[in-house]
């Protein structure tokens, strides 16, 4: 017999189910069969039954389709274990068939589409056709029967009918419609195996069943008890109620008929269309019916709405008594972004925990239409909080492709093979431990590898022939092959020479044990290139299975954290091959199709973590609206929910809707209604309602708008504002907005860091505490031994030197992105380095072609004629420089000058090289930066202090600025001692010496400009602006001087002390 139980509370339905299950089946070893809409419902129901019965065991939770197929196998003979007409199998058969000639004229629309001969497009088309066939089998069985009789089933069905007939002849098995017909024939002749049926089956909280499924249930109910537990939003018969839209449509058709139509509660009729059709189909079988409704007390706005829906009140019948201004049972929050939605939600949940100590995280359900978009923000806000206000949570319904780094890495591997092999993407492949561990690399090795590939100018391409495949000239420049060969050759023949070996320029950057790292890198690149040979060709499915597993074995070394992710890849390809095998697919497929199928398999959301503890975050899916004390719906944005799937143009059901047909949009509308009746205490809704760029308003989901309109039309809270306006909170753009931390404000936040940020904005005059409240103690004696290069390094950035050398604070900067494009021009620094080499080559009489060959092998020149033009332009300038340098170089080269200078227990040691009897002569192509100028000055002072009497202590430097000259400095010892004293002071506290800003200040000062003008020039360099780079942007300066206001009297004194003598002694011409 068919038993139907109605209630507006899932708990009451679970209670009724428990009362039934208390009565044991005839055979105590027989498992109970419970049919649920999805596994999440099964988990909730098992917990409910265990709570009521003390245990829930020996129970099979089945999905509707699997249960119906199992039922048919019990009642009939010769029913296969698996349905041979599943869409996934049909897709493979149709894919193979569409690859063959379609000669009939009715196939012309398909032939036009298939002209591109794109395998992936053909497979996708096969999938759409297979989905249509599946819908016809379930919802239009008479069409299938008509096609089998070679009859027209619907207008324009010609080519679909022919394909179906071929499909059925090829598959040689019974499909759903055949079995349904066989069932009725067997029932009429008494040939059903009713003795195989269990004593009872319970279907719990299903939101929809096709007419064919209901028909089979009704037939089976003659020999077994079938209990249907239905979540019904309204008691009484409401199947004849219509929405306002339907009423208007009927009124346009016939005003007389419209007089007999009832509208009822607008939320019920507008959102409940799918449920109304489902209940209409069920009641047609006249089952025994039990009503166990519970009428909520109208003590809160939420409960009033639930009561209105339950009793199907018309909007004007609803109680109009004033609402409690403190009623928080329904809230709507408007934010600027998904991140802000999660930040606001976090604070709102903390507030609810504070106000209600009985509320637990497991009492809260958070649903969203777009899980993949919101999941990263959930993990940031809820998963990485270092504050005390951490909330435990569980995140479900994420797909492997979005959650698993290994899956994403594997798909990237397959996609890159046979492509351009851009250096940035290839090196990024090595970052995950699961891959670099397989090739014997450590995470610490990656920085070195990054440096190597940048140094040898690898950009893209396997080798010269690989570049030719992309229509470019055959050249190995900037390819992987040339770059790796240069590194290997440099290790084999160490040295700094510029001699070519078989057209290659050795790069002597790899030393000692680093050769192992280079070997592992070469092994990885070779494996990647070998992968190209393995997967670019088409192959049969069983070959692809072996290929994929081989790739996994070759590239991945999983640990406990990643072994499940690797297994997910193996399972995905196994399922794909199994489906194709079941479809008897015999063809070959390309890599692109395999990647597409893997993406599809790995994009299926997994619900295994649902109800796993803590706040439950999950996707908005039908019948996911389980009873919770608090239900939050976030991301309720316009066009996102309800979701709408546009049918393909050849879907014959699109223009012939019937009662019982499924619709994604109708499913979502009914899901919203189910959520309204499932929440027990508080309904929380949020959406992105403000544009983050210009603050313009953005509309919410149409369902949220309908709810707001219903509230405004039905209830009243104040004369000044509508109910929806009172329930809606418009949140500021930033979480540290001062409104969150003001007393008596409707806004609040529990974030301590945001509170500090708001306080800083409100009180900008409060200066932060100094980085070092007092000076450090003097360093030990070993610090008094100072290398010359250390002293110069100190003055490049005194603050960085103190923080890194004494305090061990090294601020990591973002590693420069590797350039994947071929060089089209020389950048600023490359141009300067190339120029120095050209000048040196010119001075040593190397010819132009030799120099060009070396620089091409180095990989910095643009390809082709463009590179030659840039090269020749620098050669002409280099010749001019060489001539000038030759004319200036009058002295004789002498041995390097040893430096050993002592001052107040500080000892400066080192060597000065490239010294001549007439001093130091150097050059650079680019302008001389302030830091390098300061280094030249220190070396010049040391030259003056340490040079023998036969050496003229003069320093000359040729650059784009001209010829800079430092003449002999009589007070060199005093100036050098002052620099040493300042160095010792800088080892104990940050000193405000900043090369760019300090030089700007002193330059203006020596021009007799007013102090204000001098400081203005310094501030332009310090804070940047239109003057360009801000010196204060240096992270070490920002850490030591957090307020930035350090251009004070001490800055002036130290700047004048260091740069005053330098600028005074400098001559530029």
From TrEMBL:
The keyword RNA-binding does not apply. GO terms for biological process: double-strand break repair via homologous recombination. Pfam families: Exonuc_V_gamma, RecC_C. The keyword S-adenosyl-L-methionine does not apply. GO terms for cellular component: exodeoxyribonuclease V complex. Keywords: ATP-binding, DNA damage, DNA repair, DNA-binding, Exonuclease, Helicase, Hydrolase, Nuclease, Nucleotide-binding. SUPFAM superfamilies: P-loop containing nucleoside triphosphate hydrolases, Restriction endonuclease-like. It comes from the Bacteria. GO terms for molecular function: ATP binding; DNA binding; DNA helicase activity; exodeoxyribonuclease V activity. Residues 783-1004 form the RecC C-terminal domain. Heterotrimer of RecB, RecC and RecD. All subunits contribute to DNA-binding. A helicase/nuclease that prepares dsDNA breaks (DSB) for recombinational DNA repair. Binds to DSBs and unwinds DNA via a highly rapid and processive ATP-dependent bidirectional helicase activity. Unwinds dsDNA until it encounters a Chi (crossover hotspot instigator) sequence from the 3' direction. Cuts ssDNA a few nucleotides 3' to the Chi site. The properties and activities of the enzyme are changed at Chi. The Chi-altered holoenzyme produces a long 3'-ssDNA overhang and facilitates RecA-binding to the ssDNA for homologous DNA recombination and repair. In the RecBCD complex, RecB has a slow 3'-5' helicase, an exonuclease activity and loads RecA onto ssDNA, RecD has a fast 5'-3' helicase activity, while RecC stimulates the ATPase and processivity of the RecB helicase and contributes to recognition of the Chi site. Belongs to the RecC family. HAMAP family: RecC. This is RecBCD enzyme subunit RecC.
């Amino acid at each position: 017999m068919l038993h139907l139980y109605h209630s507006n509370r899932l708990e009451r339905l679970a209670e009724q189910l428990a009362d039934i299950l208390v009565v044991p089946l005839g055979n105590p070893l027989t498992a109970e069969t419970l049919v649920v809409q999805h596994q999440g419902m099964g988990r909730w129901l098992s917990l409910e039954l265990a709570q009521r019965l003390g245990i829930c065991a020996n129970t099979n939770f089945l999905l509707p389709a699997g249960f119906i197929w199992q039922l048919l196998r019990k009642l009939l003979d010769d029913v296969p274990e698996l349905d041979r007409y599943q869409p996934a199998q049909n897709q493979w058969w149709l894919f193979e068939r569409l690859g063959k000639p379609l000669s009939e004229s009715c196939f012309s629309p398909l032939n036009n589409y298939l002209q591109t001969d794109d395998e992936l497009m053909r497979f996708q088309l096969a999938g759409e056709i297979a989905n249509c066939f599946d819908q016809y089998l379930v919802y239009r069985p008479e069409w299938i029967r008509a096609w089998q009789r070679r009859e027209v089933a619907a207008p324009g069905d010609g080519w679909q009918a022919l394909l179906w007939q071929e499909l059925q002849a090829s598959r040689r098995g019974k499909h759903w419609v055949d079995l349904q017909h066989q069932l009725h024939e067997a029932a009429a002749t008494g040939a059903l195996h009713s003795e195989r049926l269990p004593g009872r089956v319970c279907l719990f909280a299903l939101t929809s069943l096709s007419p064919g499924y209901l028909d089979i249930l009704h037939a089976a109910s003659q020999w077994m008890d079938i209990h249907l537990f239905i979540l019904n939003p309204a008691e009484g018969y409401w199947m004849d109620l219509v929405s306002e839209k339907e009423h208007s449509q009927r009124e346009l058709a016939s005003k007389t008929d419209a007089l007999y139509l009832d509208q009822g509660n607008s939320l019920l009729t507008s959102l409940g269309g799918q449920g109304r059709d489902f209940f209409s189909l069920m009641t047609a079988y006249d089952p025994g019916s039990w009503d166990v409704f519970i009428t909520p007390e109208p003590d809160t706005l939420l409960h009033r709405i639930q009561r209105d829906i339950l009793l199907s009140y018309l909007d004007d019948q609803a109680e109009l008594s004033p609402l409690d201004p403190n009623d928080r049972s329904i809230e709507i929050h408007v934010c600027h972004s998904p991140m802000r939605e999660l930040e606001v939600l976090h604070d709102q949940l903390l507030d609810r925990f504070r106000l209600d100590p009985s509320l637990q995280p497991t009492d809260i359900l958070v649903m969203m239409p777009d899980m993949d978009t919101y999941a990263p923000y959930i993990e940031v806000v809820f998963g990485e909080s270092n504050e005390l206000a951490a909330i435990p949570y569980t995140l479900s319904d994420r797909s492997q492709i979005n959650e698993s780094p290994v899956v994403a890495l594997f798909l990237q591997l397959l996609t890159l093979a046979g492509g351009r092999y851009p250096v940035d993407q290839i090196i990024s492949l090595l970052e995950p431990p699961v891959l670099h561990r397989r090739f014997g690399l450590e995470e610490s090795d990656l920085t070195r590898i990054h440096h190597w590939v940048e140094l040898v100018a690898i950009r893209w391409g396997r080798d010269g022939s690989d570049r030719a495949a992309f229509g470019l000239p055959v050249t190995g420049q900037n390819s992987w092959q040339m770059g790796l060969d240069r590194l290997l050759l440099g290790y084999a023949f160490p040295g700094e020479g510029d001699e070519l070996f078989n057209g290659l320029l050795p790069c002597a950057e790899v030393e000692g044990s680093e050769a192992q790292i280079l070997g592992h890198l070469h092994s990885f690149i070779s494996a990647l290139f070998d992968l190209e040979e393995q997967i670019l060709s088409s192959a049969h499915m069983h070959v692809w299975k072996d290929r994929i597993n081989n790739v996994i074995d070759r590239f991945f070394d999983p640990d406990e954290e990643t072994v499940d992710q690797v297994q997910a890849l193996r399972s995905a390809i196994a399922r794909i091959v199994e489906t194709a095998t079941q479809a008897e697919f015999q063809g070959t497929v390309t890599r692109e199709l395999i990647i597409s199928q893997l993406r599809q398999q790995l994009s299926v959301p997994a619900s295994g973590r649902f109800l796993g503890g803590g706040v439950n975050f999950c996707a908005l899916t039908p019948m996911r609206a389980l009873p919770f004390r608090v239900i939050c719906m976030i991301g309720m944005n316009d066009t996102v929910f309800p979701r709408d799937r546009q049918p393909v143009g050849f879907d014959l059901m699109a223009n012939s809707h019937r009662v019982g047909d499924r619709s994604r949009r109708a499913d979502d509308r009914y899901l919203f209604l189910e959520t309204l009746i499932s929440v027990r205490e508080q309904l929380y809704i949020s959406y992105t309602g403000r544009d983050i760029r210009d603050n313009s308003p953005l509309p919410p989901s149409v369902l949220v708008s309908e709810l707001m309109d219903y509230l405004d039309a039905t209830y009243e809270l104040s004369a000044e504002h509508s109910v929806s306006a009172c329930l809606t909170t418009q949140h500021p753009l930033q979480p540290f907005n001062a409104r969150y931390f003001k007393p008596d404000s409707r806004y609040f936040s529990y974030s301590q860091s945001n509170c500090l940020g708001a306080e800083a904005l409100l009180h900008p005059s409060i200066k932060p505490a100094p980085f070092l409240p007092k000076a450090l103690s003097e360093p030990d004696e070993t610090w008094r031994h100072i290398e010359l290069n250390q002293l110069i390094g100190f003055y490049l950035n005194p603050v960085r030197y103190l923080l890194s050398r004494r305090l061990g604070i090294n601020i990591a900067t973002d590693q420069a992105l590797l350039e994947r494009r071929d060089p089209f021009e020389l950048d600023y620094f490359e141009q300067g380095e190339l120029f120095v080499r050209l000048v040196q080559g010119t001075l040593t009489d190397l010819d132009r072609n030799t120099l060009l060959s070396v620089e091409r092998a180095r990989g910095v020149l643009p390809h082709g004629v463009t590179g030659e033009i840039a090269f020749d332009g620098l050669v002409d300038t280099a010749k001019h420089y060489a001539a000038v340098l030759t004319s200036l170089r009058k002295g004789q080269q002498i041995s390097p000058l040893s430096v050993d200078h002592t001052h107040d227990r500080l000892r400066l040691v080192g060597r000065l090289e490239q010294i001549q009897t007439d001093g130091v002569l150097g050059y650079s192509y680019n302008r001389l930066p302030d830091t390098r100028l300061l280094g030249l000055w220190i070396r010049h002072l040391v030259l003056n202090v340490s040079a023998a009497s036969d050496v003229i202590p003069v320093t000359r430097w040729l650059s784009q600025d001209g010829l800079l000259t430092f003449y002999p400095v009589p007070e060199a010892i005093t100036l050098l001692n002052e620099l040493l004293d300042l160095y010792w002071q800088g080892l104990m506290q940050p000193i405000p010496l900043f090369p760019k800003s300090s030089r700007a200040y002193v330059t203006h000062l020596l021009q007799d400009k007013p102090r204000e003008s001098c400081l203005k020039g310094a501030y332009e360099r310090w804070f940047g602006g239109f003057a360009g780079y801000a010196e204060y942007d240096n992270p070490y300066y920002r850490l030591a001087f957090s307020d930035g206001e350090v251009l004070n009297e001490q800055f002036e004194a130290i700047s004048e002390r260091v740069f005053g003598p330098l600028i005074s002694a400098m001559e530029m011409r």
